[in-house]
Amino acid sequence: MRAPKGCSSIRKSAMSLRRFLPIAALALAVAVAPAQAAEVKKFDRASFEAARAAGKPILVDVKAWWCPVCASQNRTIKKAVAGNAAYDKLVIFEVNYDSQKADWQALGVRKQGTLIGYKGAREVGRVEFKADKAVINELLAQTLR
Q: Are residues 37 and 84 in contact, defined by beta-carbon separation less than 8 angstroms?
């Protein structure tokens, strides 16, 4: 018994689709997933001092999970550094406002939502409790100069 006319082309299309879907899914995943150029680390004094001594560009992000300004700052930072080769050497140290009090106090921080930029050992700027994208992007740029 022969298949009705046109069925073989449907089978060929289905086979082609089965081969194409995994490739398309992989391409979509790569395109959608943002590549982050900067290295993000939990703050610890030894790593922070080593990065400063190595002359690296550094951003210290003092944040709390419950802080809306912190969340806005985080989105701006991620968007700025994602896939941006200029920030390949940037190290972002995240300081937990609730559990790392001694660390943020040692940096002269008074409240959550504080961002501190360094170029090596030199502090180049600070943003305190502001979510202004232009101000945050300028602080990030200062770490590279």
A: yes
Q: What's the pTM value of the predicted model, to 2 decimals?
A: 0.76
Closest CA to 116 of 36, 61, 42: 61
Helix pair 133-142, 68-81: axis angle to 10 deg: 50
Long-range CB contacts for residues 121-130, cutoff 8 Å, separation at least 24:
121/52, 121/53, 121/55, 127/73, 129/69, 130/69, 130/73
CB 116 within 8 A of CB 107: yes
pLDDT tens digits along 15-48: 554 554 455 444 444 444 445 579 999 999 999 9
Tokens linked to 7: 């069925």
* Dihedral of alpha carbons 84, 40, 78, 135, sign: negative
| Cα(118)–Cα(115) distance, integer angstroms | 10
120 within 8 A of 56, measured Cβ to Cβ: yes
Low-confidence ranges of the chain (pLDDT < 50): 14, 17, 20-21, 24-34
